[in-house]
Design brief:
Strand content: 15-25%
Distance between the termini: 26 Å
Largest sheet: 5 strands, mixed
Number of helices: 7
Length: about 220
Amino acid sequence: IATPCRKDCKTGEEIIYTPDKKMAIVGAGLTVEMRDDDPEYPALHVANHVLGSSAKSRLLNRLRQKEGLSYGAGSFFSADDLDKRAMLMGYGICATENANKAYDVMLEEMANWCKDGVTDEELADAKKSLAQDLQSNMANDSYVAGQLANGLFVSRTMDYHAKLDQQIQGLTKDQIKQVIAKYIDQDRLVKVKAGDLAKPTDNKEGKPTEKKSQS
């Protein structure tokens, strides 16, 4: 059954109220029309690594190390191997009282990433880290068996991984910045806060009223 990318999801802010939960989660993401063997996939894969999928990532460094707002933060990017359907999302896990600040900082860091792209140092670290990940995965029998099995289904050999690594190692900052600009439209982000958050009031008695979702 085909599952193509949907771009008709309305952007906006969704607040999910979870009374008596000690932690809160903030996130922002969007769908992307891309498959994992598309020519521009390697660039977005590396861009996501810099944003939130490494120990040195921007989101983790900003929300946890620098601001002290989050227990954990990062991003993930996944693309399908059959349909042109992918998703990128940034997130942070935090104390309820830090949710609003963590939310703002996360969006600010994602906006800077969209505007500036990656630095020379970040790109070099990403290339090295992803190459090491590949070597480690290829030494894992279970991973290799899984990739071989999936390859039989999607008509793909292990050459895919070697080619992906070559493409990653050949990337430039400009290529990554162009791909971010092409696919990551901040106006399409669906943004979420979830936790035991204060509800807005709009009446004289001060009774809380549900905030209607925009997405």
